[in-house]
Amino acid sequence: MSRPADGSPAAVTVRVPATSANLGPGYDSFGVALGRYDTVTARPAPPGEGPRIRVTGEGADTVPLDESHLVYRSAMRGFAELGQPAMALDLVCHNEIPHGGGQGSSAAAIVAGLAVARALTADGAARLPDEALLDLASSIEGHPDNAAPAVLGSFTVAWQGPDGRTRVVRRPVHPDIRLVLFSSAVGASTEQARALLPTQVPHRDAVANVAAAALLVHALTDEPALLLDATADRLHQPYRADALPATAQLVARLRGAGVAAVVSGAGPSVLAFVTAEQLGSDAARLWERPPDGFTAAILPVDTDGLQVST
């Protein structure tokens, strides 16, 4: 492929996985990457022409096709961070991640846009390495729990260091664990879901979540038999249940059948961690014949995170 004189590529393709955040007790910290992807191919627009954006797949009929598109806006933010003049882009986006579903669509778009800007900038990878890209993506979105697995893949624990920058630990998920993702036909607003949370919680609930979050790191990586106890939450899911009754009911049904189920992000999607044994158990009827309003898919854990090709 021909390259501009400055050594940056003529075009770039980025692939970003869907993500599920919180995972029960790990509010605004835990996330896992899913084997479902958004893909963006970008190249500089011809001289004298403005931006062009084409979208297929999820959101094709609803997302803006101008400079307000989130991938485009994020690319412009990336150029600014790199000290590069903004350039008009030709973007071709194919979306597999539902919008407003609690599957990390906004994080995927932000990460994709920043990755486009980095790839189209000479020595961009040296000037905006993954840890800096992740910190910037977390700042744009306001929390790191989706951005971290979107960039790094696998299971991540993210937090804010003393310097205010995002820090992440990435851990492999136990090979016996499968992910069952229930997608809802109805979207939800993360901002509205956050507004439902109280400013204070009982001390016993905070203690219970600390214990469950610590246990979940162990269960996901070493001992899947503990997943049901480890995914219990008292900090956010109970307060959002009335706003997403179908989601809350599905989580309750799955957990009642012994399946470690959680609200995916702010909902309305539901994520279940299951073992190979459970895939062949009576509980499997819950994803083989999901309730009205939901579709179910068995997905792998994505271990690659952000992928870039030129």
Automatic annotation (TrEMBL):
A GO term from the CC aspect: cytoplasm
Q: Which domain of life is it from?
A: Bacteria
The question of whether Cytoplasm is a record keyword is answered with yes
**Localized where?**
Cytoplasm
Associated pathway? Amino-acid biosynthesis; L-threonine biosynthesis; L-threonine from L-aspartate: step 4/5
Q: Locate the GHMP kinase N-terminal domain: which residues?
A: 70-153
E.C. number, please? Answer: 2.7.1.39
Listed under GO biological process in this entry are:
threonine biosynthetic process
Per the record, the similarity remark reads: Belongs to the GHMP kinase family. Homoserine kinase subfamily.
Organism the protein comes from? Nakamurella aerolata
Q: Output the Gene Ontology terms for molecular function.
A: ATP binding; homoserine kinase activity
This enzyme catalyses:
L-homoserine + ATP = O-phospho-L-homoserine + ADP + H(+)
Catalytic class of the enzyme: transferase
Record key words, sorted? Amino-acid biosynthesis, ATP-binding, Cytoplasm, Kinase, Nucleotide-binding, Threonine biosynthesis, Transferase
* InterPro entries according to UniProt: GHMP_kinase_C_dom, GHMP_kinase_C_sf, GHMP_kinase_N_dom, Homoserine_kinase, Ribosomal_Su5_D2-typ_SF, Ribsml_uS5_D2-typ_fold_subgr
Q: Ranges for the GHMP kinase C-terminal domain?
A: 227-278
Q: What is this protein called?
A: Homoserine kinase
Its biological purpose: Catalyzes the ATP-dependent phosphorylation of L-homoserine to L-homoserine phosphate.
Highest lineage ranks of the organism? Bacteria, Bacillati, Actinomycetota, Actinomycetes, Nakamurellales
Q: Where is the signal peptide?
A: none
